[in-house]
Specification:
Pectate Lyase C-like; single chain; 2 helices; two-stranded parallel ribbon; mainly beta; 2 domains
């Protein structure tokens, strides 16, 4: 009887100790929260400067625009504001949500302006519209999780990684392109005038490019690479019902 009473007294301590030693348990419970938008929106402005990289997630619709000054504005349903994460770490601006799963419709909009864009990452069914950038260095673009990036740019070098049923549609020009498309994704770059490009498509993906210099291309897993212009063909590889062909 005494032993049983002692065990009952120790039980709360054991539970608390387990929670402290296994924080993933608490995080997992929090991440399972579900919400839906209230239909009443609020707009918040953030005094953040000095960033050249942008990360967008959680189905946000974002406009990322060139400007001589910085501006970060977010419009969101008022009941979702407590989950909003807008922060700058080093040179990176993060816009997304934390600890919530959205149900049904919600308003998640961001307007971001900055002088120079070096890197953009979009994930989680986000949509990003780019406008007006002319980076002098390399522009890195990573798009995943059924996200979309579209717009215009004038760049020197571009590095695109597109995966998970995502789509990138860009127009403008760039000197060198390093492009990888996978997981049923699409690179719609026929209006982005390139000089040289290395293009890799896999997993039922497609890439459409236009260039005037050298093309190195590898298509696999029922993927398609089409090219316009009159490039010099370098290393060309086709396998698994895939093709590399001129438009």
């Amino acid at each position: 009887m005494v032993a049983k009473r002692a065990l009952l007294l120790l039980l709360p301590v054991l539970v608390l100790t387990s929670a402290c030693c296994c924080p993933w348990t608490v995080r997992r419970a929090i991440s399972n929260l579900t919400e839906e938008g209230s239909g009443r929106t609020v707009t918040r402005e953030y005094d953040l400067t000095g960033f050249s990289e942008v990360v967008i997630s959680h189905a946000f619709q974002a406009e990322v625009t060139h400007s001589e000054s910085y501006r970060v504005s977010v419009t969101i349903d008022d009941n979702l504001e407590r989950y909003l994460k807008v922060e700058k770490r080093g040179a990176v601006l993060y816009v997304g949500l934390e600890s919530v799963t959205l149900m049904n419709r919600a308003t998640l909009q961001a307007s971001i302006s900055l002088p120079d864009l070096r890197s953009l990452e979009a994930s989680g069914a986000s949509t990003v519209d780019l406008s007006g950038f002319r980076p002098t260095g390399r522009l890195n673009l990573e798009v995943s999780g059924a996200s979309t990036v579209r717009g215009d740019l004038e760049a020197q070098d571009v590095r695109f990684r597109i995966s998970g049923a995502s789509t990138v549609t860009l127009k403008g020009s760039a000197r060198d392109g390093d492009i990888e498309v996978s997981g049923a994704s699409r690179a719609r770059l026929e209006d982005l005038q390139l000089v040289d490009a290395r293009v890799e498509a896999s997993g039922a993906s497609s890439a459409h490019v236009t260039l005037s210099g050298r093309l190195d291309a590898e298509a696999s897993g029922a993927s398609t690479i089409t090219y316009g212009g009159n490039p010099t063909l370098g290393r060309i590889s086709q396998s698994g019902a895939s093709s590399v062909k001129q438009r």
